[in-house]
């Protein structure tokens, strides 16, 4: 039974798809028939323009469309030459559709030009031969323009994109042309142009609102006026359909009756004859009835797929819900680490027994076996005093023994032995307690920083992004005008401005999309990532606004005796708006020093990328190096800059003087004396300030700075070029080599970073 139900459902779905195709090509045939009836002199350009657009677009079977085009031409005229010209145009368009997928870029443009020339050749020859030397080329021009308008509309439809205002204007042109043809068709005196106008206005109102419906009414009325040469047609169409749209929220047949009533009022006011009045009433009612016969399911399906933002809003809602859920999970992890930190710092090592407790244990162990135990007095106080002395001094000597124990007790040696054991155990317990406390404090700090990073990440994930629908429409319009049909554009304003464009794969390069986005918003944008969407044939280009400042980096270096250098430099981006510059000088030179400095730099990069604060990063890297590298130390310079907030943080550990060069002068920055890894705990030098456009920060290893005395290096940097960091680094390095006589006594490295404001 279930299998039979499933098969029935598949058959119904297949029949529905066939019905959609049948309606689609029936409407295409009707549109071509209307287009064929529009003439400009002796030329009929609009049907050929529509077929050209179909041949170069997707979504239609071009051979079938060409067949409908030829049939429409035979129905529109009985002259031989126009029909032969239509066959030539149809063959050219079918050939173009077959070659279209093999052509891209300039080849596709060339194919379009050749197809246009071939399709119009027959019409041009026929028109010129008939004496229409003006209207024949004019008709070809109209045909080309109409083809471009239809091609744009088909591109938007194929991209499943919500049309922009420019797209709606193009649709109005198409409707105007088709209405001009429809107003030339009559049956029993009933003008089909009025019926088409009602259907177009009702459909537009349902899809896009009453404003779009009125626009469709004006476009259809204008087409009728152009076809008939009567402004009364335009006035009647606009007035009747305005009344129709007022009642468009009611039952559709009631709206049709309202339009018929409007026709009666209009034509009676202008004394139109009874026969013409009845025919126009019938035309408007037929149009309203035909629109009422369109299934609401089909209209809703069209609206949701092409003209409604409900799908996009639903997708955004689901995305925001997922972000909120993920943020809650991350925040839960942060709370777990926070609880672990509190539990860790609240506990401690086991308590060391007091002197009185140890005295009682000694008394029970020694005095209990003594014959004088019952008569001995004052032993508890004497033993407690002895244990206190042993615990305080680390041991108990014979001179420390209280008078009672020394003169009256035969177990003095046993007491001294046990108190010595107690003192040793007490020392060991205190050392373990101290080490345990230090470990707990270090782990507590690590957990605190992990908690902080996770909490910040949760806040960023959960933060609501402010959508900018006006900017979305502006960008979508600009992309559409450049021939790039996008399905959707999402513009958000948060910690950083972001744009995501959903478009057909290969419609344009990501860099081109970013450049257009920058021109629309008046600021530079960079491509963050490009990836294929779940929907076949579509890709997503995500862009981020570039920060107001940027940075350039330069390095100059020389190793000792041309061996492997112990200096390591780094310049990395930490997300979209931050960067890190570092110079690490492994103590000594050669491969081992290089290994230490590379390890330090890699650890620092990883911590900063994860979002940890600077001082914590240095502490953790120092703790790791002090344990893992033995006697290997490293001098370290780190600078982290935020290109949005202008915050600059410089961290120094055991490194020589650094310099900040500004247009007003050069400032020296001195730091901590101990290098990275020298001790388990060190206090780095940290300087935080705001940079200005044009600032240059120079780091140099001691192989360079040791060759200068006093303010020589500062003066050299101050007098160097303010703009070119490569020149500055090279000048410093060349002067250092000159001073060393060309023989490096140590590895030498100079780095320079310049921040500047984007133009």
List keywords for this structure.
Arp2/3 complex 21 kDa subunit ARPC3; alpha+beta; 5-stranded antiparallel beta sheet; 17 strands; 759 residues; single chain
Describe the sheet with the most strands.
5 strands, antiparallel
Radius of gyration: 43 Å
Predict the CATH topology of the largest domain. Phosphatase 2c, domain 1
What is the helix tally?
Answer: 25
Mean pLDDT comes to: 78
Name the CATH homologous superfamily of the largest domain: PPM-type phosphatase domain
- Percent of sequence in beta strands: 5-15%
Beta strands, count: 17
Second-tier CATH architecture of the largest domain? 4-Layer Sandwich
**Outline, from the CA principal axes?**
elongated
Distance between the termini: 71 Å
Sheet with most strands: strand arrangement: 3-4-5-7-6
- The oligomeric status of these chains comes to single chain
Structural class: alpha+beta
